[in-house]
């Protein structure tokens, strides 16, 4: 029986946090062929060359790659688009959440936006939840869940704009939970306009 091959090519830290939904026809492979430091001029190219070698190894073994999980390295993205037609390409969420966390840190340093710092962990947790709790990988649903955080942080939990996910799934908030410092619309506006 044919197997679906998933190649995970990510930062080693991410391997500890990896959650991939597997079934009996799915094979998860970690292949990390990194060149020697003297073979490439810098670490960025080392990663890219490592990806190419890993994919070549699988192809040489006669394996068809169904899914590839990588970070958001631009050079990799271009190469994958040009060379791996038919392979599903996903970004690993650890890198995406890290990038979002950095943007939230920057926003929290803006005058009157320091409250954003207190929301950073919840917002990045929500990103993990949006992807991890959508096991069929429905991209539209993942985006709808993720976007709902904009309403949630403003203490709005129903009538979200995206029709796919119109209400938060958490229980109604208790009185002490309602005392949380919510974000006001001016911070959201600033975040989107800068
Ligand atoms: Zn909510």
Structure keywords:
four-stranded parallel beta sheet, 194 residues, alpha/beta, binds zinc ion
Written description of the protein model:
- With 194 residues, the protein is an alpha/beta fold.
- The protein folds into 2 domains: 4-91; 95-193, no CATH class.
- It has helices at 12-15, 43-60, 74-83, 93-108, 115-132, 139-152, 185-193; strands at 4-9, 26-30, 65-70, 88-91.
- It has a 4-stranded parallel sheet.
- Strand 1 (4-9), helix 1 and strand 2 form a beta-alpha-beta unit.
- Helix 4 packs antiparallel against helix 5 and helix 5 (115-132) packs antiparallel against helix 6 (139-152).
- The longest helix has 18 residues, at 43-60.
- Zinc ion binds at residues 152, 157, 168, 170.
Q: Gyration radius, to the nearest Å?
A: 20 Å
Please, how many helices?
7
For the terminal residues, how far apart are their CA atoms? 51 Å
Bound ligands: zinc ion
The ordered string of helix (H) and strand (E) elements is: EHEHEHEHHHH
The helix fraction, in percent, is 40-55%
- For the residues shown, what is the average pLDDT? 82
Biggest sheet strand order reads: 2-1-3-4
Number of domains: 2
What does the overall shape look like? elongated
Q: Quick one: how many beta strands?
A: 4
Main beta sheet: strand number and arrangement?
Answer: 4 strands, parallel
Low-confidence stretches: none
What class would the helix/strand composition place it in?
Answer: alpha/beta
Strand content: 5-15%
């Amino acid at each position: 029986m044919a197997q679906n091959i998933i190649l995970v090519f990510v930062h080693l830290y991410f391997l500890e946090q990896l959650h991939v939904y597997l079934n009996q026809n799915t094979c998860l492979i970690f292949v990390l062929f990194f060149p020697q430091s003297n073979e490439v001029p810098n670490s960025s190219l080392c990663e890219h060359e490592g990806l190419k070698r890993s994919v070549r190894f699988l192809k040489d073994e006669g394996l068809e790659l169904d899914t590839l999980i990588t970070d958001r390295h631009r050079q990799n993205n271009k190469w994958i688009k040009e060379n791996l037609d038919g392979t599903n390409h996903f970004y690993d969420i650890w890198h995406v959440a890290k990038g979002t966390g950095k943007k939230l840190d920057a926003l929290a340093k803006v005058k009157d936006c320091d409250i954003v710092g207190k929301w950073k962990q919840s917002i990045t947790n929500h990103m993990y939840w949006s992807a991890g709790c959508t096991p069929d990988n429905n991209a539209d649903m993942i985006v709808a869940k993720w976007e709902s955080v904009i309403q949630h942080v403003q203490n709005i939990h129903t009538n979200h704009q995206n029709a796919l996910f119109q209400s938060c799934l958490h229980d109604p908030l208790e009185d002490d939970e309602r005392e949380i410092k919510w974000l006001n619309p001016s911070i959201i506006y600033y975040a989107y306009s800068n």
